[in-house]
Amino acid sequence: MLTSLLARVSGALFCLGLLLAAMVSSLVFGHIPVSLDMLAASLVDYDPGSLEHLVIRTERFSRTMTALIVGAGLAIAGALMQTLTRNPLASPGILGINAGAMFFVVVGATLFSLTSPSELVWAAFTGAATAAFLVYFLGQEAGRGISPVRTVLAGVAVTALFVSFAQGLLILNQDRFESILFWLAGSVSGRDLEAILPLLPLFCLALLVALLLCRQLNLLGLDDEVVRGLGLKVGHVRLLIGLVVIVLAGTSVAMAGLIGFVGLIVPHMARGIFGTDHRWFLPLSAILGATLLLAADTVARLVIPPQEVPVGVMTALMGTPLFLHLARHLRKVS
C-alpha cells in the first residue's frame, strides 16, 4: 500500500499512464488495425475517404468514450456501495442493481419502443432504485440492521429474478430480441456519441457529488454513534450516496447493458494500492475502472476475429477468479 504523498502521486500518475495506454490501444487495435501515425492523422486532419479514419471517427472513438465512462461509473458505484454497506462484496452487479436497471430497460424497449440511451436512462434509474430498495429491505436482520450475508443473498436472488423476467419478456417478443440482446450480454460497441452526450451532464454531476462526499465517506467507516457525535447526518449522507449509486449504475446500464465485476473488483484493487482514504481511493477507482473496461473491450475484439466477444462476457471471465479469491480470503479473515 502506498502511504507517502510522493508515492501516492507517483502511483496516480502511473495509473493515468495505464489509462492513456488503454485508450490508445482501444483506438488502434481491432479487426481493422490502425497505426499510431494514422490515428494521429485522423484526429488532426480527418479524411472522410480513408477507411481507417472512418473507423476511428465513427466507431472506435465513441466506443472508447463509452467504455471510459461506464468503467469509471461502475467502479465508483461499487466503491460507494462497499463503503455504504460496509460489505466488501457489495457492487451494483452483485446486489442486483444492474439487473434491475437492465430489466426496466428491456421493458422500455420491448413494450414502449424506447431506443436511445437518453430515453432508456430513466427506465434504468427506476429499475436500479427498485432493485436497491428490494435488496435493502430483504437484507435487514431483525434488531441488527443490514446483514452483509443477507444482503449478498438478497442481491443474488434479485438478480436472478430480474434477469429471468427480462429473458421471459424477450421470448414473448421475438421481434425486439436482437435489438436488445447486447444489453443482456453487455457491450460498448455501436453507441453513437450523439446518443451518449445527453447523459454526460447527469453522469458528471453524480461523479462530482461523489468526490465532494469524500470526507463524509471516510467518517462512515466509524461507528454510527461516533459519526453522529461528530455532527454528520448519517441518514442524509447515506440517502445521497444511494442516489449517486443509482444514477451511476443506471446511466452505465443505459449505455452499455449488463456488465459485471468491474464495480466489485476495481475498488479492492484501488484500496489495496492507495488505502481507504476516499480522497485518493475514489478517483483512482474511476481511473482503474475505466482502464479495466477499455482493456477488456480491446481483448474482446482480438480473441476470435473477425467476431467479437461481448465485453460483459470478458469482464466475467476476468472477474470470476478474482471474486472467488476475494471470497476465500474474506472467509479466512473472518
From TrEMBL:
Major localization listed first in the record, in broad terms: membrane
Protein topology in the membrane: Multi-pass membrane protein
Alphabetic keyword roster: Cell membrane, Membrane, Transmembrane, Transmembrane helix, Transport
Top-level taxonomic group: Bacteria
One Pfam family in the UniProt entry: FecCD
Compartments reported by the entry: Cell membrane
Record field: transmembrane: 61-81, 93-114, 120-139, 151-173, 193-214, 254-274, 281-303, 309-327
Family, similarity comment: Belongs to the binding-protein-dependent transport system permease family. FecCD subfamily.
Protein name, per record: Iron ABC transporter permease
Species: Marinobacter iranensis
